[in-house]
């Protein structure tokens, strides 16, 4: 491996800008980090070059650990977006700078400089000053300068970003040729998909500091695993359908999956992707030549040079929920984007308003189901803190979020929701806003009936209301997060384990959230005479160690703590540690005849911990709650 | 800039343009040109020979020389230290940065007379520090040239810092980072990449502080006393001659000071024009 990154993490003001990123890049590979601005991709490059320090992780270049080395000793070539040429040196001096510092003889220097000028196509311009060159030429000089020392790796930070479209394509071609000729391992950072597809051997898609997926351009486009990558690259039609052993059911029709083998025979709901070019259109269902989805209507047409672009609308299909394109507000119809080559557009012309049959040539199921959050608010100050926290978690977790506003006069609520929508808007995979005049319990029940939820974030005045909490827990299998009035993004969680039970679910879900937040955890287990008389210290330690292992597999750092004493007091002491800003406790799932209850330690702790975030994780394993004290 | 400005201005009646220009010229004439002409006339009224003789009086000559070498020394020290302070202020983040930045301007706000008093209180022979310096190094600060240099350093501190700071701010860190990836150490980066861009602004700041130092009176008259042939600077000499009613001597040395300032002004103008061109 020529570049190895292990668990790189960087935080600014507590927020992880690069979050536990690991990556291996082969010798001679051209790797592209693709992401929108602020996704942390440039920070990764700066960390490899030693221009930014890292909080955690390790960097190896050609098996040499350079994590602690200074920039000067790392032997990386770096090309910056804004060229960074030395303004008071001419082109030749710029290129020779690194060689001169290493006291290379003048003759060798000149030979190398001429060789490089030829490589980047600037022969004869050695005497020019940087300001006498065009942007494209300046970037060529910067490239030559970076290559002068024959670096181990070449790092390119949006090298084409500041250039005009035409020059960009020219330089892209040169870059490809030069990389092929030299065979140097390279990482290029860009937000331009076309550039990434054209240059990359492999692409890594980044978002909010995390590497979401890595693969060849074709893999990522045709067979993405996550909703984020599916909709980030190109145009995606995404529907939530029903998985079956034969493939996937969308409405009445079953579609075979392109990736049937890795569909782990799950019988649940599955996200289905088909690209605009995979849609077949015909006047009759029989003429489609592929399984028909339904009949639809053309609502938009356009021309994009190489193809015709159409947007269609179909009636809602049973058990199918559209994800992308996002359905129009207050409209349940499914939208589908289609592109057709010009010859097809000529053979079967379509106008706005025309009716047409829609078939799917190829569908792909995403292996990652994606999380679904519900944020319950009432416009109180606490709900404002909740919006900020929930937004952060949902962004990092790429969760779909629904904001449910309850118990407020419609007028006040509208203004508040407008504000919340603005704050949440950027970077969320999907955001819906619902409002209800009903009491919270009722409103949440309606939401849960329409779809399964993974997490309910409760940011309302009635936080201390145990009846409400119990009722919400009894509505389904979701986890429940209580938000305090003021909440910074959690950095350190206290996971309270009830020893003797496997506790696997609490640890795993908490670990997933913590990973998204870049937070750490302390696993706390209480040895108590009254709680677990049969448990001995050795067992408890093994149990804690297992939890730590599971967390570290998720990339979350944690330590363990074993305390003796009455459960309530011991846990309270742990919670009152000022470092802790999130408390995680397990609670059993409701069972027929045995509703969930917050009597006992969990409820008492919840009532006594109003100033910290409190997450109740539902566990299949947890048979009984902490007993009453 | 004046060109394009004139071209794009809306038409104004000719008489109002003349009126405005007339007022501007009259004001400049009354406030600047006439006093300058008067001192020129007064200094030369006894003829060039007498002018030369007055200039070459031992006390006058010594005062001018003292003024020139202390000011030159101060300009050089300022160039180095000003660069350093500006670099620290622009390139590093630390607590108290805002305070330090504000402190740089403080010397401009403090009356120079007060500066003199402060230095006497600090370095006076009866004060602990002053006494220690005399005893340990035999260095007399107050009522001696070192006091002049320290006073001048105090009052001219901001000039180089404020000349370099904006240029340094504009100077892309990317160039420094690029040099680092090419193996250049910190000092090499500063010398080969940063300094070339700062040379002219630093020079223009140093010349400004030189010209300010040549004319300084308030701080020096307190710190240096008025010892002819030892610690009397040109400005203090002029003051002494006025006091002792030797108007000619005062005018002659004043004229010399005006000539130095005028020459420096032109030099500074030229340097900043070149600095401006270099950065485009």
Sum up the structure in keywords.
heterodimer; A: 629 residues; alpha/beta; Rossmann fold; six-stranded mixed sheet; B: 280 residues; mainly alpha; MetI-like fold; 81% helix; disordered N terminus
Structural topology:
The complex is a heterodimer of chains A (629) and B (280).
Chain A: E1 3-12, E2 15-25, E3 30-34, H1 41-49, E4 56-61, E5 64-65, E6 76-79, H2 91-101, H3 106-119, H4 135-147, E7 153-157, H5 165-182, E8 185-190, H6 193-199, E9 202-207, E10 210-215, H7 217-222, H8 227-232, E11 237-244, E12 247-250, E13 253-255, E14 269-274, E15 279-282, E16 292-303, E17 308-314, E18 321-324, E19 334-340, H9 342-347, E20 355-360, E21 364-365, E22 372-377, H10 381-397, E23 400-405, H11 410-425, E24 430-435, H12 440-450, E25 455-459, H13 466-473, E26 479-482, E27 492-497, H14 504-517, E28 520-527, H15 537-553, E29 558-564, H16 567-575, E30 582-588, H17 601-608, E31 613-619
Parallel strand pairs in A: 3-8, 3-9, 6-7, 7-8, 22-23, 22-25, 23-24, 25-26, 27-28, 27-30, 28-29, 30-31
Antiparallel strand pairs in A: 1-2, 1-4, 4-5, 9-10, 11-12, 11-14, 11-18, 12-13, 14-21, 15-20, 16-17, 16-20, 17-19, 26-31
Helix pairs in contact in A: 2-3, 2-4, 3-4, 10-14, 16-17
Chain B: H1 2-8, H2 14-43, H3 48-55, H4 58-91, H5 97-109, H6 112-123, H7 128-137, H8 145-170, H9 173-181, H10 186-215, H11 218-223, H12 234-243, H13 247-279
Q: Your description of this structure?
A:
The complex is a heterodimer of chains A (629) and B (280). Chain A is an alpha/beta fold. In chain A, 30% of the residues lie in helices and 30% in strands. Chain A has four domains: 217 residues, Rossmann fold (3-Layer(aba) Sandwich), CATH 3.40.50.300; 131 residues, RNA polymerase II/Efflux pump adaptor protein, barrel-sandwich hybrid domain (OB fold (Dihydrolipoamide Acetyltransferase, E2P), Beta Barrel); 111 residues, 3-Layer(aba) Sandwich (Rossmann fold); 128 residues, HUPs (Rossmann fold, 3-Layer(aba) Sandwich). Chain A is built from 17 helices and 31 strands. In chain A, helix 3 crosses helix 4, helix 10 packs across helix 14 and helix 16 packs parallel to helix 17. Chain A is globular. The N and C termini of chain A lie far apart (57 Å). The relative contact order of chain A is 0.07. The C terminus of chain A is likely disordered. Chain B has one domain: MetI-like fold (Orthogonal Bundle), CATH 1.10.3720. Chain B contains 13 helices and no strands. In chain B, helix 8 crosses helix 10. Chain B is globular and about 70 Å long.
């Amino acid at each position: 491996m020529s570049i190895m990154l292990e668990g790189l993490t960087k935080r600014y003001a507590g927020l992880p800008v690069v979050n536990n990123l690991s990556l291996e890049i082969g010798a001679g590979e051209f790797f592209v980090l693709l992401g929108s601005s602020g996704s942390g991709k440039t920070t990764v490059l700066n960390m490899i070059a030693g221009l930014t320090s890292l909080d955690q992780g390790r960097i190896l270049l050609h098996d040499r650990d350079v994590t602690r080395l200074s920039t000067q000793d790392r032997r990386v070539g770096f090309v910056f977006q804004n060229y960074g040429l030395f303004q008071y040196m001419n082109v030749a001096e710029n290129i020779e700078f690194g060689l001169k510092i290493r006291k290379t003889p003048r003759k060798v220097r000149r030979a190398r400089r001429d060789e490089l000028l030829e490589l980047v196509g600037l022969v004869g311009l050695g005497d020019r000053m940087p300001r006498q060159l065009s942007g494209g030429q300046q970037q060529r000089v910067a490239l030559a300068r970076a290559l002068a020392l024959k670096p181990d790796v070449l790092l390119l930070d949006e090298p084409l970003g500041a250039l005009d479209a035409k020059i960009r394509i020219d330089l892209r071609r040169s870059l490809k040729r030069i990389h092929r000729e030299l065979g140097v391992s390279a990482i290029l950072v860009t937000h331009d998909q076309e550039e990434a597809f054209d240059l990359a051997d492999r692409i890594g898609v980044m978002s909010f500091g995390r590497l979401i997926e890595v693969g060849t351009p074709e893999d990522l486009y045709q067979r993405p695993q996550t909703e984020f990558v599916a909709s980030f690259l190109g145009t995606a039609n995404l529907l939530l359908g029903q998985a079956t052993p034969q493939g996937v059911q969308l409405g009445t029709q079953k579609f075979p999956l392109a990736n049937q083998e890795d569909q782990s025979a799950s019988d649940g709901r599955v996200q289905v992707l088909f690209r605009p070019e995979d849609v077949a259109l015909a006047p009759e269902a029989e003429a489609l030549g592929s399984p028909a989805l339904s009949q639809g209507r053309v609502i938009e047409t356009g021309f994009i040079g190489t193809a015709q672009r159409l947007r269609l609308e179909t009636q809602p299909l049973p058990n199918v929920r559209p994800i992308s394109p996002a359905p129009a507000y207050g409209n349940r119809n499914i939208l589908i984007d289609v592109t057709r080559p010009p010859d097809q557009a000529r053979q079967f012309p379509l106008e706005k308003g025309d009716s047409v049959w829609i078939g799917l040539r190829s569908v792909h199921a995403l292996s990652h189901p994606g999380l679904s959050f519900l944020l319950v608010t009432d416009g109180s100050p606490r709900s404002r803190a909740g919006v900020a926290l929930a937004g952060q978690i949902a962004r990092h977790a790429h969760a779909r979020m629904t904001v449910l506003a309850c118990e407020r006069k419609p007028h006040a609520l509208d203004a508040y929701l407008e504000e919340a929508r603005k704050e949440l808007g950027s970077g969320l995979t999907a955001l819906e806003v619902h409002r209800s005049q009903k009491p919270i319990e009722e409103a949440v029940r309606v939401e849960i009936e329409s779809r399964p939820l993974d997490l309910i974030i409760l940011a309302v005045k009635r936080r201390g209301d145990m009846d409400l909490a119990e009722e919400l827990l009894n509505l389904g299998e979701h986890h429940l997060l209580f938000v305090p009035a003021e909440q910074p993004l959690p950095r350190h969680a206290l996971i309270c384990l009830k020893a003797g039970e496997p506790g696997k679910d609490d640890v795993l879900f908490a670990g997933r959230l913590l990973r998204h937040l870049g937070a750490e955890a302390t696993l706390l287990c209480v040895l108590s005479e009254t709680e677990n008389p049969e448990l001995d210290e050795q067992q408890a330690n093994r149990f804690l160690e297992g939890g730590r292992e599971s967390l570290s597999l998720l990339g979350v750092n944690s330590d363990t703590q074993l305390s003796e004493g009455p459960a309530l007091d011991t846990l309270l002491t742990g919670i009152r540690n000022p470092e802790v800003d999130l408390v995680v406790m397990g609670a059993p799932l409701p069972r027929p005849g045995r509703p969930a209850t917050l009597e006992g330690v969990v409820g008492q702790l919840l009532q006594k911990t109003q100033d910290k975030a409190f997450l109740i994780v539902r566990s299949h394993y947890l048979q009984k709650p902490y007993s009453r004290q | 800039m004046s060109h394009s400005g004139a071209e794009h201005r809306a038409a104004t009646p000719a008489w109002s343009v003349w009126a405005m220009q007339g007022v501007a010229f009259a004001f400049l004439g009354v406030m600047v040109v006439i006093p300058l002409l008067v001192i020129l006339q007064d200094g030369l009224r006894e003829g060039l020979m007498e002018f030369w003789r007055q200039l070459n009086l031992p006390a006058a000559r010594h005062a001018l020389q003292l003024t020139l070498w202390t000011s030159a020394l101060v300009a050089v020290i300022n160039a180095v230290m000003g660069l350093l302070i500006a670099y620290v202020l622009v390139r590093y983040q630390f607590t108290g940065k805002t305070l330090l930045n504000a402190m740089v301007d403080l010397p401009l706000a403090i009356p120079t007379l007060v500066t003199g008093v402060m230095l006497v209180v600090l370095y006076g022979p009866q004060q602990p520090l002053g006494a220690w310096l005399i005893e340990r190094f035999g260095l007399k600060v107050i009522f001696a040239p070192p006091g002049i240099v320290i006073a001048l350093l105090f009052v001219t501190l901001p000039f180089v810092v404020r000349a370099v700071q904006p240029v340094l701010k504009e100077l892309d860190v990317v160039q420094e980072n690029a040099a680092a990836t090419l193996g250049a150490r910190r000092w090499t980066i500063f010398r080969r990449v940063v300094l070339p861009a700062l040379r002219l602004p630093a020079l223009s700041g140093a010349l400004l502080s030189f010209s300010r130092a040549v004319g300084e009176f308030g701080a020096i008259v307190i710190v240096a006393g008025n010892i002819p042939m030892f610690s009397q600077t040109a400005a203090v000499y002029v003051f002494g001659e006025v006091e002792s009613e030797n108007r000619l001597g005062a005018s002659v040395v004043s004229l010399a000071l005006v000539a130095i300032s005028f020459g420096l002004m032109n030099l500074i103008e030229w340097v900043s024009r070149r600095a401006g061109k270099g950065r485009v």
